[in-house]
Design goal:
elongated, Skp_dom_sf
Length: 353
């Protein structure tokens, strides 16, 4: 009770002194840390095996004492008073030996507690050293042990630095096997961990993440707007193409009808046109659009015909050039063959005897 009161008083005093900047608290779980240390786990298993052996020895001695008690109880009627007292003294002596042995092995200052203390003390010293370094680096005001006698009614996980202690213990165990370069890397990692635990650094990181998320949101909105515009343009283009196709079909139908009407003009009884009829009549919007489309199609056909003529002329020129080259080559070959032919003269030889 005095210990708890002292701890609470210390907390209150320190909290009052640091009220303006706030109190930073962390806690560890020493049992959790010890279980994570491989050397301690192995030594703990060996110690548990010893304790199990001691318990078996105690159980054997207890059974022997029980047998002596049962024998005395069975033979009490046959024994003299001196023999009974002698056996009772023997049983009491063995019971005292058993109690002493229990205290020696499992008492408050027994072998189990003392060997466990020897086993835990080096690790505890390392843990305390790491805690002091972390407290100075991260400005902790209090660091509690969750597994101690101090009752913690609530502890948020964000204040638990047990895993951090385990990592640094593991690193410290490997330092003797690391090179100078690896040690520098290890120190930089520890410095980065301390930096990430700084509230100001965390606030800056959060602000950067918020800005990054805002930029991504703006980019997504722009992409969505561009996609909507592209879709709208595509729909409008398809609509225009459909309208043009419909007007083209309509114009083709109008041309057929006009041709049939022109064939029937001479047979009609309409009066001859007057001078007033020769004046240009205003065209409707549909007729004007049809005329524009007809002119555009005529221009396109003229361009296509012109391109086709150019292509044909180019092919003809290419064919002519190839024919001329072939004729020249043939002439050169004939001239070469003619020059290389040897002249032969027929000589008549007569043999005179």
């Amino acid at each position: 009770m005095k210990k708890i009161f002292l701890v609470l008083f210390t907390i209150f005093a320190t909290a009052t002194a640091t009220a303006q900047r706030g109190v930073k608290i962390a806690y560890i779980d020493m049992e959790y840390i010890l279980d994570k240390v491989s050397d301690y786990a192995e030594a703990k298993n060996q110690l548990e095996q010893k304790a199990q052996k001691w318990k078996q020895e105690i159980e054997v001695k207890r059974n022997d004492i029980n047998k002596l008690k049962e024998g005395l109880k069975t033979e009490r009627a046959l024994l003299t008073k001196e023999l009974i007292e002698e056996r009772e003294e023997e049983i009491a002596f063995q019971e005292k030996e058993l109690l002493d042995y229990q205290l020696k092995r499992f008492g408050p200052t027994g072998d189990l507690i003392s060997q466990k203390s020897v086993l835990v003390k080096p690790i505890q010293d390392q843990v305390f050293t790491i805690i002091q370094d972390l407290a100075e680096a991260r400005n902790y005001d209090f660091v509690f042990d969750k597994s101690s006698d101090l009752t913690m009614l609530f502890a948020a996980n964000r204040h638990d630095i047990s895993d951090l202690i385990v990592r640094r213990l593991t690193r410290a165990a490997k330092q003797s096997q690391l090179t100078s370069k690896e040690l520098k890397k290890l120190e930089s990692e520890e410095a980065q961990e301390d930096l990430e635990a700084d509230p100001e650094y965390q606030a800056r990181q959060k602000k950067l993440e918020d800005r990054k998320a805002e930029r991504q949101r703006i980019i997504d909105e722009r992409k969505a707007a561009q996609e909507a515009k592209r879709k709208e343009y595509q729909e409008r283009r398809e609509k225009l193409l459909q309208e043009r196709e419909a007007k083209k079909n309509e114009r083709n139908g109008v041309k057929t009808t006009d041709t049939e009407d022109k064939g029937d003009v001479n047979s009609t009884d309409d009066p001859a046109p007057t001078e007033g009829d020769d004046a240009p009549q205003p065209k409707s919007n549909t007729t004007e659009n049809n005329d524009k489309q007809t002119a555009a199609e005529a221009a396109r056909e003229a361009r296509e015909k012109k391109l086709e003529d150019r292509r044909k002329a180019a092919e003809e020129r290419r064919a002519k050039i190839l024919a001329d080259r072939e004729a020249a080559k043939k002439a050169r070959d004939e001239e070469r063959n003619k020059n290389n032919t040897p002249e032969t003269t027929d000589t008549e030889t007569t043999d005179e005897e």
